[in-house]
Amino acid sequence: MKLASSMQKTSALEKHFHTKHPLRMFYRDVLDEVEGCKGYFDLSAVWARLAPSGNVYRLCALQEVRLGHCADLQSQLRELAEEFEEMLGGTSEERYNLLIASLKEAKVDLDEAYEQAEKGWELDSFKTTGYPPLEEFLVGNVSRGLLVVPAEPSAWKDWCTSKLVGCMVAVVQILGPVMVVLSLWQDPTNYLQHPLETAQRISVKNVFCVERDMGEWCTILMGVVFSFFVVVQLLNYAHEELEDAYKFGRLAGCASFWAFAGGYINAWCVMWNILVIPVSFWKLTHASQVVLNAMTILFMFNLDDLAGTAGSVLGTSDTLFQRGLCWNY
């Protein structure tokens, strides 16, 4: 490898000159190696450690906060364009566009910082054009009114789609589990209606299903196994959501309505889905129905995840959301 050969050359020079070599060649080779590995370095693991997993609520919150930054920076740039009106000339919009074009064409050369240590040594990675951290918030105009919204038709369409999907998912996750419980609450198989009678029916014979046939025994066994599986999945999801809420708060803050509401909607959905499990499983008569009901419950509380249905509808993914959040903040 290049680093190994560099260390070998350095050691040979040290031995030859009987003095400690400044490791200049080794340092240069390290930077060359890093430059060569940039195309193969997978940053998705870095994004996952810094940013929370994506859901439609956090996506809407990110869009809302980002548009606020866009409006603020674009307002500052327009004020700057007016301040240098004589120098830039043209109309107000032309001056604004000229400043953005100049920003994109600005040359940034970091070679001067290494001039004293490495004279005559240049790396392309030290030379960039433009300033991406600012350009990110200056792509596409926004309009500020009651809400800050994109001005371009395509961006406006994406913004409306994400908000519409977010509202629909919120309605399903808020009302869906509640409707399931209410629809089954008056059913004779709902033993939660009469908890005292249910407690009296508990016996060793009933617990081990002694008087049940094979079909009923399989259904009960599948119900117990999948109840445990779904509850553990819900609790793990709640733990991950708590950690993700802290991550999102550290990066983008919790000033957005969507960030605030998303946490409570997920907590509400998890709580009611745990109540759905016994009420719906008691009514089932076949083992296959247990599997389908368990998958339905898991689908309901995973509906907002960008790794699933919401991401497919919006044309995004968990990785893209995490990268966008880290890039913006």
Kindly describe this structure.
- The protein is mainly alpha-helical.
- Among the domains are: 1-41; 153-328, no CATH class.
- Helix content is 69%, strand content 4%.
- The chain is built from 15 helices and four strands.
- It has a two-stranded antiparallel ribbon with strand order 1-2. Strands 3-4 form a two-stranded antiparallel ribbon.
- Helix 4 packs across helix 6.
- Residues 1-22 and 113-122 have low confidence and may be disordered.
Features:
mainly alpha; two-stranded antiparallel ribbon; membrane; 69% helix; 15 helices; elongated
Instruction: Write down the Rg.
Output: 30 Å
**Helix proportion of residues, in percent?**
55-70%
Structural class label? mainly alpha
Total strand segments: 4
Shape verdict: elongated
Poorly predicted runs: 1-22, 113-122
How many individual helices?
Answer: 15
Strand order of the largest sheet: 1-2
Organism: Symbiodinium necroappetens
Protein name: Ndor1 protein
Keywords: Membrane, Transmembrane, Transmembrane helix
Transmembrane segments: 164-185, 220-239, 251-275
